[in-house]
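Q: A reviewer asked whether we had any structural model of the full assembly, not just the individual parts. We don't, so I'm hoping you can provide one. Inputs are below.
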Amino acid sequence: MHKSDFQWEIEPANSLLDLKLKDTWEYRDLLMLLVRRDFVSFYKQTILGPLWFFIQPLLTTIMFTFVFGRLAGISTDGLPQPLFYMAGITAWNYFAECLTKTSTVFKDNANIFGKVYFPRLIMPLSIVVSNLVRFAVQLVLFLAVMVFYYVKDASFQPTFALALFPLIVLLMAAQGLGLGMIISAMTTKYRDLAFLVTFGVQLLMYATTVIYPLSAAPQNLKWVLEINPMTAIIETFRYGFLGAGTFSWVSLGYTTLVTGGVLIFGIVIFNKVEKNFVDTV
Amino acid sequence: MNNIAIKVENLSKAYQLGEIGTGTISRDLERWFAKVRGKEDPFLRIGETNDRNSKGNSDVVWSLKDINFEIEQGDAVGIIGRNGAGKSTLLKILSRVTSPTTGKISGRGRIASLLEVGTGFHPELTGRENIYLNGAILGMRKKEIARKFDEIVDFAGVERYVDTPVKRYSSGMYVRLAFAVAAHLESEILIVDEVLAVGDAEFQKKCLGKMGEVSKGEGRTVLFVSHNMGAVKTLCNKGILLTQGNVSFYGAVADTINCYSQNFINNKAEFKSIKGNRGLEIIDIVINGSNDPSINIFETIKIEIKYKIHNYEYSNFETFIIIHDENDTEIISFFQKDAGKLALIDEKNKNVIASFENILRPGNYKVSAGFFDPYRNFVDWVAPASLFIVEENFHEGGRYDYRLGKVFSKAIWS
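A: Here is a predicted structure for the entire assembly that you could use as a starting point for your response.
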C-alpha cells in the first residue's frame, strides 16, 4: 500500500515547525462562534449588560487619578490626569486580559479538550478576539472622554502615530497571546506558574508606563522600561491619540521583533504541549 | 483497489502512574539527559503489561501495547473488553484527543468522534446558539449546520424550546439535543463511546437506530465502544476484543463476544460439589440464557439451573442461589421456600429458573447454587462457578454514580 492512499496520519510527535495554521483556518467558524459565546454569556442575566465593560476602566481611572495623580502627584506629560490614565488602562487592560485568559486556557478547557479534537490554537485566538470586542467598547469610552477634554480645553493634538494604531493593537494581541501560550503550556505540568501570573501581570504594569510617562522615569532606570516591550506600545498609543509621550521608531521596531519572537515561540511550545496535555492535566 | 478506512500499526500508549508535578523537573532533566546521550528514556520501559492487580516495578503503565489492526470501509466495529483494557485510550488516540507514545494510525475520511455528547454546550446560550457552537466544535462549518438545522431540531424534538437557554432544559432534552447535533455530522468515520448510556429507553432506541442507519445505509465506518453487548451485537458486524492493552481477538461480532465471555468464564465447565449425595446433579448454571455475562443495575437477571436426575425419591425439591463477589464473600442469597413453593421435578426440561432484579453494585460476581430435599437435607451444592459482570450503568440508562453500598434497592417513598 502506498502511503499517499491515506488522507491523514496520527503519529506520536509532529515536527516542531508544523504550526497547523491551515488546520486552524479550517475551523474559523468555530472561532467566531466562540467569540459570540463569550460575548453573549458575559452579559446574559445582567441588568447593565455590556455597560459592565465601561465600569471597570472608569473606576480604575478615578482611583488612579486620586492615588497617583492627586496624592502622589506623578507627572502625566502635561495631559489631563484622567485622560492620561485612561489611555494607559485601556491599552494595558487589553494586553493583560489576553495574557491572563490565555495562560489558563488548558486548565479552563480541560473538559472540552479531553473529549473533542479541534486545532487547540482556536481557543487562545478566540480569547484574543473576544477581548478585542471588549477593547473596542472601552476604546469608545476613551474616545468619548477624549472628546470631552478636547472640547473643554484643547491642550493636546492627535499625531501621525495614530496611523500606527492597528499595528499597536496587533502587537498587544500578539504579545499577550504569545506570553499567555508559553505560560499555559508550562502550567499544564507546573501549576506554580498559574499563581505567578495574576500578580505578575500587576507587577508588570508598574514596570510599564501605565501610571507614569517614560519621560518621568529616572535616567539610571530607564533602560529597564525600554527593555520591556510593552512600554513602546503604551507610549506609542498615547503619543498617537494624545500627542504626548515618547515615540521612537527604534523602540517600536525592537518591540515588533520581540513580539514576533514571543508569538512564534508561544505557538510552537503550545502545539507541542497540546498533543499530550490531556494525560497530565 | 483496497478500501481500508483505518490502519493501526504498532500503536502503544504509556501513562505515567503516581503524582505528576512533584519531582517532574528533575525527571524531565534526567529524561532530557538520556536523550542527549542517545539512550532510551529511563522512565519508559517496554515490556510491562497493563495489569492493575499486580504492582509493576516502574511508574509507567502501558495502556495499549503494540496494537495492529485494519478496519475496512463500511464496517461497524465494536470494541469490547473489561474495564482498563485500553478501549477508551484507543478511542482517545483515534479522536486525536491525545497522541500515541509509539506507532501510527493512518486513514481515510473525516472522523467524527463522540466521546461525550454536548461537549462545549454553554448553559446560558439558547438551543439554537448551542447547536451552532457544538456543531462547530465537532468540526462542522456554519453553512453545513444551517443546512441541517431543522433536521437536528426535529430529531431532538425541541422545536418549542429552541430559543430558550439550555440551562432551562430538562436533562433529557439536553441530551437529545446534544446527540442530535452529533448524529447529523457528515463524516466517513464515526467513533462512539458509551454515550448512549444516557436518555430514556425510547431515545436510546432512536439513537441506536440512527447509528445503525449510519453504518449500514450510508456506508460509513463506525467504531463503537460499549459494555452493552446487546447494543454491540445489533450495531456492529465486527468486533475487537482488547485484553490488557492487546488485541486478543478480531473477527465477526458474535465470535468476539463469545471469546470475551469464554475469557471471562474460563472455569465454567467445572461444577464442584461441596455437599449432598447428588441424587440430583447440577450440571450448568446459565445467566440470562446466553454467554453474555454483562448486566446493568436494576435489570432483571435470569439464572437457569440445569440438572440431571440420578436417584431422587421425592417429587419436589427446594433450590437456593448464592451470589458471591470476586473475593468469594457471600453478598446475597435466594431460597425458593421464601417465595412460598418448592420446585417440581421436571423430567422434560430438567431446569429451574430464578428471576430477580439486579440490585448489585458494579463488579464481577460468581454464582453458586444448590438443592434441598423437602426436609432441607442437601441434595447437591456446587461451589461458585458461573460468573457475571454488573456494568456501570443503570437499567434505565443512567450512569452508575459511585454511590455507597454493595447493593441498591428501591424503597417506597412517601
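A: Points you may want to mention in the reply: The radius of gyration of chain B is 25 Å. Chain B is about 25% helix and 35% strand.
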